[in-house]
Hints:
The protein is α/β, with parallel strands linked by helices. It folds into two domains: 1-143 and 293-324, Isopropylmalate Dehydrogenase, CATH 3.40.718.10; 145-284, Isopropylmalate Dehydrogenase. Helices cover 37% and strands 18% of the residues. The protein has twelve helices and twelve strands. It has a twelve-stranded mixed sheet, sandwiched between helices. Helix 7 (175-191) packs across helix 8. It is globular and about 60 Å long. The two termini are 15 Å apart.
Amino acid sequence: MNIKIAVTSGEPAGIGPDICLALADADLSCRTVVLGDKNLLAERAAMLGKNTVLHDFCAGAPAPAQGLEVLHLPLDTPCTAGKPDPRNAEYVLRLLDRAHQGIASGEFAGMVTAPVHKGIINEAGRAAFFSGHTEYLAEKSGTEQVVMMLAGGGLRVALLTTHLPLKDVAAQITRERIVRIARIVHADLRDKFGIAAPRILLAGLNPHAGENGHLGREEIDEMLPALAQLQGESIDIRGPYPADTLFQPFMLDGADAVLAAYHDQGLPVLKYASFGRGANITLGLPFVRTSVDHGTAADLAGTGRADAGSLLEAVRVARAMCGN
C-alpha cells in the first residue's frame, strides 16, 4: 500500500470519471489517487447511485480506510455527461501534467490514464497536434522513442508503428527502427516486468512474411538484418513470422511478447482475447505508465453501463511494474 499510483480521470464527459469511482471498491494492493475535479466525481457518483466517499489527497497523510482519494483539479467549464466540450481540453492536459510532475518529484510511483478524446483536444486549437497520451508523455519527459504495448488474455503485443495511415507503414519498417524498438521492448520486459531473459517474436509486414520476396521485400531487406544485429547483442528475438499463423498457442509457447509491424495487425487479436480486461502500457518512458484498452465511450457516461475492468487491470499492471 506504500506504492502510490496517480490515476488521471481523462475526458470529463466520457466514462473516465465513472470507471475511476470503481477504484474505491477494488482491492489493488496499492494506494490509488484520482486526479480530477472532485465535484464532477461527486456528480457522477450521484448519477450512478453510488455513495462513494471522496477524500482530499494529502501526500503526507495515511490512506483513508475507505472511499476514494482525489487530487482536485477544477474543470475549466461545467461538464455534461456524454457531451465533450473543447473548452475542457486544457483541463484534460493539466491532469497529465500534474501526474507527470508528481512522478518527477517522487510523490507518485507511476501513472494510470483513463481515456481522452484526441479530436476534442485538437478542436481546442492547441498549437501542436495532439496524437495521444503516448506521444504527449514522451515529449513531456524528453523521451526520444517510446513503444506501445498492450497486455491481456495471456498475450503481450508491442508495435513497431502506431497511429499511422496504412499507406505510410511500409516506409517506417526499417532496420534502424526495428533495432531501436526491440531494444526498448527487451529492456522493459527485463527491468519493469522482471523477466530475466525475454523472448520476442517478430511478425512480418507482408502476407506470408513476404513469401521469400514475392509479396514484398521488407522482411528480407529490413527485418532479417535487424534480427541478426539484435541477436548479436544477445537479445532473443525470432522471426519474421507470418502474422496470420503467429498468434497460436504452439507458436506463442515460451514467448514473452510479440512485436507486430502495425496497429491493426497485432491489436485486433489481443483485443479479441481480452477486450475490457487488457492494459495499454507505454514502454521506454523513464517511469511507469499504463492505460485502458478502450476509448472515452461518451454514450455510456453516467449510465452505469461502463465496465471498469480494463482500468483495474491497468492499475494492477502498473503496481506490479512499480514493484519491479
